[in-house]
Amino acid sequence: MFEKRSGQSSRTLKLGGCFWLLAASGVAGCAVQAPPKAPSLRVVPVVAPPSATRSPTPTPTPIVNEPGRACGELGCLAFASAPAAFQRVLLEQPRVLGLGEAHAPKGFPGVRSSTRRFAEELMPALKGQATDIVIELLLGGGRCGQERESAVAARQKPVTQHQAENNQNEFVTLGHAARALGIQPHALLPTCPEFQAVLDAGETDIARMLELIADTTLRTVDKLLSAPNADSSKLILAYGGALHNDLSPSDASRAWSYGPRLMQRTEGRYVALDVIVPEFIKDTPAWRALPWYAHYNADRLGHDAILFNPEPHSYVLVLPLSPGTP
Predict the structure, then answer these.
(1) What is the distance between the alpha carbons of residues 292 and 307, in angstroms, rounded to a whole number?
(2) What digits encode the pLDDT tens for the residues 242-283?
(3) What residues does each domain of the chain span?
């Protein structure tokens, strides 16, 4: 689950993303939507730990341009397929597409996560169009000491205990699927002082990690935008939790979002897209706080791909219900 505009304290936040720490022994854990910063701004490809499963090379799905069917407020459009709805978003021709998700919770073994569905259904359409994807994976690798990195990973447990156990592996697999399409994956690299800053933050450690992940994602994307061989006609992707890509964060969460800063950095060529699995939507305060929640009805809309446009350059794609879902 996640919430974008909540007044809850950092200790009680239920967020759409968390950072996955790749330590020397593999995936040390997922820490609440919290990124760190790249030391020398060196871009590092995602490396899968031994436990990560690799998905087959995605097959590009032919995209049929369709206008969509009006389905309500907030610019609601219904499409026959998720790729068709995704194509509508791409018509804005962003330079950077900030993708947000709500992590899969426990208890839904037969339902594919947003990560998997993006990798399998949507990302193949970007073959030849996107050059890079920055994934919310922190690369530790033991550089800052196994004890310190493990301590940082342990700070995530109160937040991730209700999430599906294979979430972090799916982020790693996303990197491999991207590379198979010719899209270079990049992890986030925290400095050792930044790891230590999380440990020193005490009761505000979660908020500190949230800020770090937004800053590091921004910095990594900025390096890609500024590269001598950067092609301004191509797309750069940033994939992580649905808090960080927000274009209109609340004052309380402004430091946790890279959206407004990337909008400025790209001179208006930034688009935010949340990818939502409908089976995970629940009648809770966190979901009800989202502007599109009241306009989505699974009984009426669940078998279509539903695209909301709550504000300029900001979209929410609610994927079709999985086959067999009533």
Answers:
(1) 10
(2) 989 999 999 989 999 999 999 999 999 999 999 999 999 999
(3) 10-318
Q: Look up tokens 């790249």; give the residue.
A: 38
Phi, psi of 239 (to 5 degrees): -120, 130
- Rounded to two decimals, the pTM is 0.80
Instruction: Give backbone dihedrals phi and psi of 245, rounded to 5 degrees, phi first.
Output: -90, 0
- Alpha-carbon gap, residue 51 to 26, rounded angstroms: 8
**Size of the chain, expressed as the number of residues it contains:** 326
Dihedral of alpha carbons 87, 316, 240, 120, sign: negative
At 220, phi and psi to the nearest 5? -70, -45
CA-based nearest residue to 73, from 299, 320, 297: 297
Residue 61 burial by CB count (10 A; 0-12/13-18/19+): exposed, middle or buried?
middle
DSSP letter (8 states) at residue 120: I
Euclidean distance between the first and final Cα of the chain, in Å?
22
Contact 121, 58 (CB under 8 A): no
d(CA 36, CA 23) in angstroms, rounded, equals: 14
For residues 162 and 13, what is the distance between their CA atoms, to the nearest angstrom? 13
3 state SS of 326 = coil
| Phi, psi of 305, deg, nearest 5 | -90, 120
Token pair of 141, please?
């690798």
Which parts of 126-206 are beta strand (E)? 130-139, 184-188
The position carrying tokens 């994956």 is 185
Closest CA relative to residue 135, chosen from 196, 57, 44, 222 = 44
pLDDT digits over 134-161, tens only?
Answer: 999 877 666 677 766 666 666 655 555 4
DSSP-assigned letters across all residues of 52-118: PPPPPPPPPPPP-----EE-SSTT-EEESSHHHHHHHHHTT--SEEEEEEPPPBTT-TTS--HHHHI
Among 108, 119, 138, residue whose Cα is nearest residue 33:
138
DSSP 163: B
Q: Please state, in angstroms and rounded to a whole number, the distance separating the CA atoms of residues 217 and 62.
A: 31
